[in-house]
Automatic annotation (TrEMBL):
<dbReference type="InterPro" id="IPR001647">
    <property type="entry name" value="HTH_TetR"/>
</dbReference>
<keyword id="KW-0804">Transcription</keyword>
<keyword id="KW-0805">Transcription regulation</keyword>
<dbReference type="InterPro" id="IPR050109">
    <property type="entry name" value="HTH-type_TetR-like_transc_reg"/>
</dbReference>
<protein>
    <submittedName>
        <fullName>AcrR family transcriptional regulator</fullName>
    </submittedName>
</protein>
<dbReference type="InterPro" id="IPR023772">
    <property type="entry name" value="DNA-bd_HTH_TetR-type_CS"/>
</dbReference>
<dbReference type="InterPro" id="IPR009057">
    <property type="entry name" value="Homeodomain-like_sf"/>
</dbReference>
<feature type="DNA-binding region" description="H-T-H motif">
    <location>
        <begin position="35"/>
        <end position="54"/>
    </location>
</feature>
<feature type="domain" description="HTH tetR-type">
    <location>
        <begin position="12"/>
        <end position="72"/>
    </location>
</feature>
<keyword id="KW-0238">DNA-binding</keyword>
<feature type="domain" description="HTH tetR-type">
    <location>
        <begin position="206"/>
        <end position="266"/>
    </location>
</feature>
<dbReference type="Pfam" id="PF00440">
    <property type="entry name" value="TetR_N"/>
</dbReference>
<feature type="DNA-binding region" description="H-T-H motif">
    <location>
        <begin position="229"/>
        <end position="248"/>
    </location>
</feature>
Length: 387
């Protein structure tokens, strides 16, 4: 084969195609579950050809984790320094929506980067946050501009974390409007009901199985599921590793039990706090306050469930996905009653945008729990929904 024919067969942007395919696989399956062979198949090349571009899976993963932030930085660099907030947020929205299938890597999987690469990623993302914060401060000189900027980015970034099918232009318009509302929301004008939320009691580990689950959740949250061994879990509860198998078939079953526990507690909380609420607007506000209170109360549990679900086998994922859908359906129904102009897909997109607000603002607050923090986050969530 001549050099000319080889060039015709091999696309010039093959490395870009590899990164896009890898980003999708890492987002869908998690870093450790993804394989170089699976990624190569997605590009239509052999694994050997893939290794000519990236020496190992970690190098490819690090590239994927950085590429979304690099795109955001590049898009914002093209926006004039004193541009209106809408123009700044629109640039972020266009990039995020265009790459929604691969753009979620940095939100959860970036914890698997080494310290140097993780710091580099944070530095890049800090540029994005600063640019949005400056625009928020100029246009809406209210308290907590850093929180409002993080919330706006959380609303936009939420599109990378779910698969609701909706036209690109429609979702861009929805997310941009949601982010603008959040940026204009005064978190100090608390909605108040966050202070009266009733949550199910934190499970007390009264059995050996419950002790194992509680210890594993803390380890998974701190170090990531893939980095925690059965030996470490057993050591945390004073057992030898082989004794774990009396209670769980394997480590993945401990993770599934943790995620199911999170889903069950949230369902109980929603049922308790919606009891007797008949007005749709009040119901959405109650849902917001409940979700925020739950997120602060069960931070380790929810972090593990959010971050590690993609790593579960399909058979173990199914009941968890069903529970998630039931939860979203409650939000969707109440939001559409409060905002009848929304169709079901628009409502789901906005609900996920609200969840994205909670994640990013909670992180910004380092999940330090207080009534004021809960009220502020709930107010931002409600703003994202357009109530």
């Amino acid at each position: 084969m001549t050099a000319e024919s080889t060039a015709a067969v091999r696309p010039r942007n093959r490395k870009q195609l590899i990164v896009e395919a890898a980003g999708r696989v890492f987002s869908e399956r998690g870093y450790h579950a993804a394989s170089m062979e699976e990624i190569a198949t997605g590009v239509g090349i052999t694994a050997a050809a893939l290794y000519r571009h990236f020496p190992n899976k970690y190098a490819l993963f690090a590239e994927c984790a950085n590429v979304m932030v690099d795109r955001l930085v590049a898009a914002l660099d093209e926006v004039p320094p004193k541009a209106a907030l809408a123009e700044v947020l629109a640039a972020v929205t266009r990039v995020t929506v265009a790459h929604r299938a691969s753009g979620g890597v940095y939100r959860w999987e970036a914890r698997y980067l080494n310290r140097e690469d993780r710091q580099l990623l944070r530095t890049k993302f800090a540029r994005v946050v600063r640019r949005v914060t400056d625009a928020v401060r100029r246009e809406h000189p209210l308290p907590d501009e850093h929180l409002r900027a993080a919330a706006a980015l959380g609303a936009i970034g939420s599109i990378t974390m779910h698969r609701t099918s909706i036209a690109q232009r429609r979702v861009e318009d929805l997310l941009l409007a949601s982010a603008e509302r959040v940026a204009a929301t005064d978190p100090a004008a608390a909605i108040g009901s966050a202070r009266s939320v009733e949550l199910p009691a934190q499970p007390v580990p009264r059995t050996r199985r419950a002790e194992i689950l509680a210890a594993a959740i803390l380890l998974f949250e701190r170090d990531g599921f893939a980095n925690v061994t059965n030996g470490r879990i057993a050591e945390a509860v004073g057992l030898v590793p082989s004794a774990l198998y009396r209670y769980f078939p394997g480590k993945v079953d401990i993770l599934a039990a943790a995620c199911l526990q999170a889903a069950g507690l949230l369902a109980q909380a929603v049922e308790q706090n919606l009891h007797g609420v008949t007005d749709p607007h009040d119901a959405v506000v109650a849902l917001a306050a409940t979700y925020v209170a739950y997120s602060f109360e069960h931070t380790a549990l929810t972090s593990v469930a959010n971050a590690e679900l993609v790593g579960l086998p399909t058979t173990l994922q199914r009941p968890l996905i069903d529970a998630q859908r039931e939860h979203i359906a409650v939000w969707e129904q109440q939001l559409r009653l409060a905002r009848p102009e929304l169709d079901s897909r628009q409502a789901r997109v906005l609900v996920h945008a609200g969840f994205g607000v909670v994640v990013e603002v909670g992180r910004r607050l380092r999940w330090r729990d207080s009534p004021d923090h809960r009220d502020a986050v709930a107010a931002l969530l409600v703003g994202a929904l357009g109530l």
